[in-house]
Amino acid sequence: MEPTKPSAQWLTAFDDFMKIVEHLRSLEGCPWDLEQTHESLKRNLIEESYEVLEAIDSQDPRKLSEELGDILLQVALHADIAKKAGHFAIEDVLAQINQKLVRRHPHVFGNTIVTGAREVEDNWERLKEAERGSSSPVAGIPQETPSLAYAQLMQDRVAKAGFDWEDISGVLAKICEELDEFEKAENPDAVSSEYGDVLFSLVNLARWHGIHAEEALRQANKRFKQRYIKMEALATIHELDFRRLPLNEKEDLWQQAKRIVG
Fold first, then answer.
1. Which of 24, 63, 109, 115 is in Cβ range 3.0-4.6 Å of 55 for a Cys bridge?
2. pLDDT for 78-102, tens place per residue?
3. Are 171 and 201 in contact (CB under 8 A)?
4. Nearest alpha-carbon partner for 206 in 195, 197, 190, 217
5. Angle, in degrees to the nearest 10, between helices 42-58 and 213-237
6. Low-confidence residues in the chain, pLDDT < 50
7. Where are the domains of the chain?
8. CATH topology identical between 8-103 and 142-211
9. CB contact set of 197 (below 8 Å; sequence gap of 6+)
10. Could you tell me if 171 and 204 are in contact, meaning their C-beta atoms sit under 8 angstroms apart?
11. How far is CA 114 from the centre of its chain?
């Protein structure tokens, strides 16, 4: 099966977009854009990625479209920086991802037969292992990956290699074991180490339930922020000094906030 070719309208829009980026990074363009480097843009890429996640949570298609455009801008900026350095151009980026998508979907563009999504995932991992030149499931995970996501990705990979509990009871027992070791830790270094083990085990529990730990904590942070702000608002409505309230009254406000904002 041959990949679908993009329309002329799409190509024109993309070409216009790249011309704008190239102009921004020219001597006649924007001084800020011109001085950017791969390193200076790292923070922007991370920030824009999280703004995409927020747009998805908002369920606002227009907002998501806007934020995806900001991600595309980051790709274009990096490509233009590389082009001016003589390393690669946006055409190389597109060619590589086109080739990778076809290569990693032999069940779509080749003769491989699969029975479902799980088999697709297994094939994908085998192809990635061959590409990175290592058979170890723990190799090749970017070091900058957020820690919860890193732990879950690593656990996913070793589980597919057969290193996993037989059922969830082993996961729960391991959490209890790690909590016990945390309580018995006798110095700050040991406390920190055992706390890390507790978190790692909790990530494994999330994996067993099909929960993305990084996303679950992000949503928990969001809920806490909304509830706390509502607590403060409720205190203001009742003309109370929130900071001076005793803990039991703050807890009452917390329960009210939970009922209101969820």
1. 63
2. 999 999 999 999 999 999 999 999 9
3. yes
4. 217
5. 70
6. none
7. 8-103, 142-211, 215-261
8. yes
9. 178, 181, 182
10. yes
11. 28
